[in-house]
Design goal:
Structural class: mainly alpha
CATH topology: Serine Threonine Protein Phosphatase 5, Tetratricopeptide repeat
Shape: globular
Number of strands: 0
Helix content: 55-70%
Order of helices and strands: HHHHHHHHH
């Protein structure tokens, strides 16, 4: 899976979402740090997975990170278990989007995972929906809800990975 590069990219995002104090292991800032580390190391990936497996509440962004932890686990799992973790990630992403369908961080995490799954699995049904949502969100910048750094990272991801048409890429580059 090509998840590692996308996990690293997404780990640097600083979306405009409310965060709790650093003492909370499920604060968005803490999760972003954990996610960054998990993307670079199997050991950190397992630690992140264990942290997220213990999460039982219903915060949409935290659930999206829990889904991302499942995807990281799939990256590091045996071939026999990969599909189970990817299916779990898919279910958690669906739940997170249902809770907050307008959250760009959730949509970006889901797109970065689904767009790297093999098509034959049939677990990438939201790629186009999330792509359109993110393009629309970016085109509203600076009123997109994304800070400048996050805007640049999402735009780079969409343009460089070929998730936008030439016309969309041109519009996004002008922002």
């Amino acid at each position: 899976m090509k998840l590692v590069s996308f996990l690293i990219l997404t780990s640097f995002l600083t979306f405009a979402t409310p965060v709790s104090t650093e003492a909370n292991p499920y604060s968005v800032i803490h999760l972003r740090r954990q996610y960054q580390q998990a993307a670079t190391s199997k050991e950190a990936g397992e630690k992140f997975y264990q942290l997220m497996a213990a999460y039982t509440q219903q915060d949409a962004v935290v659930l999206a990170y829990k889904a991302a932890a499942e995807a990281i686990r799939a990256r590091d799992a045996s071939m026999f278990n990969k599909l189970t973790y990817v299916q779990n990630a898919s279910k958690l992403f669906e739940q997170a989007v249902k809770l907050d369908s307008d959250n760009a961080e959730i949509r970006f995490l889901r797109l970065s995972v689904e767009s790297n799954l093999p098509g034959f699995l049939g677990l990438s049904p939201h790629v186009e929906e999330d792509r359109q949502f993110l393009v629309s969100t970016l085109l509203r910048h600076p009123n997109s809800g994304l800070d400048a750094e996050s805007f640049g990272l999402v735009r780079t991801f969409l343009v460089d990975r070929g998730h936008v048409s030439d016309a969309e890429a041109q519009k996004l580059r002008q922002l």
